[in-house]
Amino acid sequence: MLCPRCKQVLRMRMIHNVEVDRCLACDGVWFDQGELQAAREKVEPDSRWMDVDLWADPDRFKVLDGELACPRCHAEMATIAYGDTGVEIDYCPQCQGAWLDGGEFEKIVNALREEIASKGAPDYLAASLEEAKEVVDGEKGLASEWRDLAVVTRLLQYRLLAERPGLRSVLEVLRRGSTNL
């Protein structure tokens, strides 16, 4: 496969145990279908429950006409500009692969980390309720939806303890009281 930017041969590389194709000349990366999400989840496990949010909110991204041909199937790719991150993902609607220019994968991960850090307890409570609903009727399967619920519930717990420091003392008293029963 050739790089869609500089036409150099792409070389297989690993990003946290996910095999991708990287251009050694321009540092761009080709992700086959599902590899971008898998690599992102390996690098930032707390973002796994946000997979739909990245693409589903029309106010946060826009689709533009692409200028690159897919290195896998040679179809014309669309460019997806994601929010204020400065990242433009070149996405192939045919084979569902994604091309990221050098440094864009790191920008996506950093944007997700910032989003995770900026959410408050009410945001995590709402997300926990949504994830609980998806355990029952989600598309990804029970095990995957259950892991998503566990992650967002843990983040809710951390956020509550950070926003309400007195809550930790109350929980410690309750824990000690329950062990004395």
Tell me about this structure.
It is a single chain. This protein has 181 residues and is α+β, with helices and mostly antiparallel strands. It has two domains: 10-118, no CATH class; 121-176. The protein contains six helices and seven strands. It has helices at residues 35-43, 51-56, 104-118, 121-137, 142-163, 165-179; strands spanning 10-15, 18-23, 29-31, 61-64, 78-82, 87-91, 98-100. Strands 1-2-3-7-6-5-4 form a seven-stranded antiparallel sheet. A hairpin with a 5-residue loop joins strand 2 (18-23) and strand 3 (29-31). Helix 4 (121-137) runs antiparallel to helix 5 and helix 5 (142-163) crosses helix 6. The longest helix has 22 residues, at 142-163. It is elongated, with a radius of gyration of 20 Å. The mean pLDDT is 85.
Strand content: 15-25%
Order of helices and strands: EEEHHEEEEHHHH
Strand order of the largest sheet: 1-2-3-7-6-5-4
Could you give a short account of the major beta sheet?
7 strands, antiparallel
Mean pLDDT: 85
Radius of gyration, whole Å: 20 Å
Helices and strands: which structural class? Answer: alpha+beta
Q: Could you give the count of β-strands? A: 7
Number of domains: 2
Distance between the termini: 65 Å
Unreliable stretches, pLDDT < 50, 5 or more residues?
A: none
Give the count of helical stretches: 6
In helices, the fraction of residues equals 40-55%
Looking at the structure, what is the overall shape?
elongated
